[in-house]
Amino acid sequence: MSVSTNFVQLIGHLGAAPESTQFESGKQRVTFSMATSESYRDANGENVETTDWHRIVAWGPLAGYLEKNLRKGTKVLVQGKIRHRNYQDKEGVTKYVTEVVAKDVLKLTKEEVTA
C-alpha cells in the first residue's frame, strides 16, 4: 500500500507583521510572508546565499495568537501543508498562489524585556 503526505516544515524570519482578516462568519485568517535562506559555496569557492519567500496562512485560534505575538523579523518554525489555488482578479486575469497552511507555529525569537 502506498502512502503519501503533504507536510512542510520551514524555519525563517517574518518579512512583515502578520495581516489579519476577520470574516462575517466569525473566522479569523492571518497571513504573513516568511524568508528562508541557504548558504553554499559555488564552483569558484565563493559564498553564495539564496533567499526564498513563502506565503503563510493560519486560521482560527492559531491566527489570533500569531496576530498578537509575531512581528516583522520574528524567527519562527512553521509546520503545515502546501496548497495551490487560483482566482480571478478584478480584470478577469487568473492568478496562481502557492501557500503554506500552518498547523503549528513555534516562535523562536526571544522577546527582550524592558523595565
Shape: globular
The string of secondary-structure elements, in order, is EEEEHEE
Report the end-to-end length measured between terminal Cα atoms: 59 Å
- SS content category: mainly beta
Q: How much strand content do the residues show?
A: over 45%
Number of helices: 1
> Largest sheet, if any?
5 strands, mixed, barrel
**Unreliable stretches, pLDDT < 50, 5 or more residues?**
none
Kindly report the name of the CATH homologous superfamily: Nucleic acid-binding proteins
β-strand number: 6
Strand order of the largest sheet: 1-3-4-6-5
Total domains: 1
Write down the CATH class: Mainly Beta
Under the CATH scheme, the architecture is Beta Barrel
State the CATH topology.
OB fold (Dihydrolipoamide Acetyltransferase, E2P)
Would you kindly provide a written description of the structure presented here, covering whatever features stand out?
β5 (75-88) and β6 form a beta hairpin. The protein has 115 residues and is mainly β. It contains one helix and six strands. Strands 1-3-4-6-5 form a five-stranded mixed barrel. It starts with 7 loop residues before the first strand and ends in an 8-residue tail after the last strand. It has a single domain (8-40, 47-107), classed as Nucleic acid-binding proteins (OB fold (Dihydrolipoamide Acetyltransferase, E2P), Beta Barrel). It is globular and about 55 Å long.
Task: Summarize, please.
Helix content is 9%, strand content 57%. Strands 1-3-4-6-5 form a five-stranded mixed beta barrel. The protein has 115 residues and is mostly beta strands.
